[in-house]
Amino acid sequence: MSENAKPRYALLTDFYAGDCGKLAAKLIGEQIAALWPELSGMRVLAVGWPFPYLESLKSAAHVSAAVPHFAATETALLQKQYGAAALVSLTEEHLPFYERSFDRILSVHGCEYGSSLTDFFGKAEKLLKNDGRIIAAIPNRSGLWCKKTGAPFSGGRAVTEARITGVLEAAGFVPEYHGHALAFPPTENGKLLRWAEKWEKTGQFLMPFFCGVHICEARKHILSGAALKPEKRAATAPAGLAGAGAK
Which residues of 34-69 are buried (b: 16+ CB within 10 A; e: fewer)? Predict the structure, then answer.
């Protein structure tokens, strides 16, 4: 079966079982953990393909996993494979949660496959409590991963930094951090992957436009939506990335 013909859950399972996927999960997970070092007492919704990143959320009081755009049969397979009691199927028409149910939302492989980024972040805003936060990993349109057909972070909706900022603000969020990850092309070559891990931070700094993924954190504005358009703020680096204090 060709890569393009595989069901998406099979493609993602195979990717994260390989060395390239494990390195991607490690590098993205490090940024998630640095942004959210402490989640005690919080309810977290992990959207998309969250399984390689759940370790970064282990301090949370409760974590729900949601897989958007997956068929019920696929969701059942995932639930059996990962034993996730709180795993649900999430569609653009159906949100199986009450509004303002979560303190944090993590999206990896979650928002780029929907029909509208604006709708995705609009629904996320409704699910977050006031002053809640979201982290989204989104494919970079100019990145090296976007060029490889069939690879994770290559399909769906690859976007620019300006587009992400505009969509977040329109949905009622205040963008507070914008970083990048995966400063190397997707490969299973062991030597290249060892080089890639050492090169990652330098590549993020020198050539962020080639990185495969945007890593964005935004805070829900307490008066978000129609009541008040969020004020644009400069991005600030979190603890562990550039020495700022933890949230």
Answer: bbbeebeebbbbbbbbbbbbbebbeebeebbbbbbb
Q: Domain coordinates of the chain in residue numbers?
A: 8-227
Distance CA 191, CA 243 (A): 31
Q: Which two tokens stand for residue 62?
A: 């409760």
Residues making up the chain, counted from first to last: 247
| One-letter identity of residue 123 | K
Q: Which helix (H) or strand (E) holds 190?
A: helix 190-206
- Give the CA radius of gyration of the chain: 17
Per CATH, which fold does 8-227 belong to? Rossmann fold (3.40.50)
Place of tokens 């940024």: 31
Q: Which residue has the tokens 């897989």?
A: 67
Structural tokens at position 198: 């050492």
Instruction: Write out pLDDT tens, residues 116-149.
Output: 888 889 989 999 999 899 999 999 988 889 877 7
Can you give the pTM of this predicted structure? 0.83
- Give the span between the Cα atoms of 136 and 40, in whole angstroms: 20
Q: What's CA 54's distance to the chain center, in Å?
A: 12
- Find the Cα–Cα–Cα–Cα dihedral 181, 114, 219, 61, rounded to 10°: -90
